[in-house]
Design goal:
The chain is α/β, with parallel strands linked by helices. The protein folds into 2 domains: about 55 residues, no CATH class; about 280 residues, Aldolase class I (TIM Barrel, Alpha-Beta Barrel), CATH 3.20.20. The protein is built from 14 helices and 12 strands. Helix 12 links the parallel strand 10 and strand 11. Helix 1 crosses helix 3, helix 7 packs parallel to helix 8 and helix 12 runs parallel beside helix 13. The protein is globular and about 45 Å long. About 25% of the residues have low confidence.
Length: about 400
């Protein structure tokens, strides 16, 4: 495999990585043509098991997913993507039964520290999922046809959180229109929006007797509003279902559309979160469909649009960043007005994902937390190897409020 990539060269690798998220039709055509001229293209794609994400439309025809180009029927109106749309594959068939991921190569400082058979550090050990509350919650989710990011993203804290009757709901389905090198949520053509989903989530929140709920969701660039209306509906449904419930939302960036972000904010979440995830140097390669500065702008807008809005973000360590770059990203987030920050260790979900560059010692996490709270002025920094954005989210907010650093309810 390494020989194949060496023969492809850096440009070929970049084209493979970027193929799922080319910004417009013209660049999609140019990228397709250039990628097709690379003699090792099919070998790389076939070995990596991701041919479907590379079937991009070309000029004068439409790709129907069968490997052949078809001329559009006469008189058929030309499809013009909405402001939220990006070039994407037209079919989601996955005959191998494999999650659809594109590999990211050439990002980290080395081959990775999590080679098969190598031992992980002792501080990364977690207990297996189980217990009566865990089983009850799982049955509850399946009975209402709901998704949780706890399961879809393979969160290492699922046993702890579910036993404590805490869960993070994944709205707008389980298929994302974007692909990030670290994320285990499936990248594929989404299914139609389920208009009844907010009601079912609210019913589950009531049945679970939650006092704090986190709502996150896949990116839906296929929708005119990016799914903002469904976000607002879910927030309001939970508010009506349980009096006094705390609600945290973790949406996509809506392509930077302020009207859509405002739709979510106007529904009244207690915490508005949007994750930066990595440092500036790595952002374009690891999150090709997002933008470092655009994510910061989303967080700035949340502060500006709604007085007293508490904002939050997350950084994942171990993907190739240097410790000094981490502090720089923390500083950028604080300057954007972010109140709460979470930081955790990257764990490679599958071999198709970004390799782990380094195991970050708990002492480094503690040092970042100290700098964040004492020097940069975050209201709360939750940092540790197994910390995730929604890990003990309600407790994070309560501690920040108890310290008098954010607005009270």
């Amino acid at each position: 495999m390494e020989d194949v990539f060496r023969r492809m060269g850096e440009r070929g690798i970049e084209l493979v990585e970027a193929a799922a998220h080319l910004p417009d039709a013209r660049s999609g055509i140019r990228g397709r043509e250039e990628l097709n001229r690379c003699p090792q293209r099919e070998e790389v794609v076939a070995q990596r098991g991701v041919p479907l994400l590379l079937r991009l439309p070309v000029a004068g025809g439409r790709d129907h997913g069968d490997g052949e180009e078809h001329d559009d029927a006469p008189g058929r109106p030309e499809h013009r993507p909405s402001v939220h749309s990006s070039s994407m594959p037209v079919r989601d068939h996955n005959p191998a039964g494999r999650r659809l991921h594109l590999p990211i190569v050439g990002v980290t400082n080395g081959p990775g520290v999590n080679a098969p058979g190598s031992a992980k550090p002792p501080w990364l050990k977690v207990r297996l999922a189980g217990g009566p509350n865990y089983t009850e919650l799982k049955d509850l989710m399946r009975g209402r046809s709901l998704h949780t990011v706890c399961e879809e993203a393979m969160c290492p804290n699922i046993a702890e959180c579910w036993e404590d009757r805490e869960a993070t709901f994944l709205i707008l389905g389980a298929r994302c229109t974007r692909r990030c090198g670290f994320c285990d949520v499936m990248t594929a053509r989404p299914e139609p929006v389920d208009e009844d989903e907010p009601r079912r989530i609210a019913d589950a929140v009531r049945a679970m007797e939650l006092r704090y709920v986190v709502l996150t969701g896949v990116a839906r660039d296929d929708l005119p509003d990016g799914g903002a209306g469904m976000w607002a509906a879910a927030i309001r449904a939970c508010t009506e279902a349980v009096a006094g419930i705390g609600i945290e939302v973790l949406p996509s960036d809506f392509k930077g559309g302020e009207r859509d972000i405002a739709t979510v904010l106007d529904a009244g979440p207690d915490v508005f979160a949007h994750n930066l995830e990595t440092v500036r140097r790595l952002h374009e390669r690891i999150r090709p469909a997002f933008g470092y500065d655009r994510s910061l702008d989303v967080l700035r807008f949340a502060k500006r649009h709604r007085t007293g809005q508490i904002t939050k973000s997350n950084l994942i360590l171990g993907m190739g960043e240097e410790p000094t770059e981490v502090v720089g990203a923390m500083r950028d987030l604080r300057e954007a007005g972010v109140d709460i920050l979470t930081m955790g260790q990257y764990l490679q979900p599958t071999r198709y994902h970004l390799p782990v560059d380094r195991w970050v010692h708990p002492d480094e996490f503690a040092g970042h937390a100290r700098v964040g709270e004492q020097e940069l002025g975050f209201a709360r920094v939750e940092a540790g190897p197994l910390v995730r954005s929604s890990y003990h989210a309600g407790e994070q907010l309560r501690r920040a409020r108890a310290a008098g650093r954010v607005a009270t309810a």
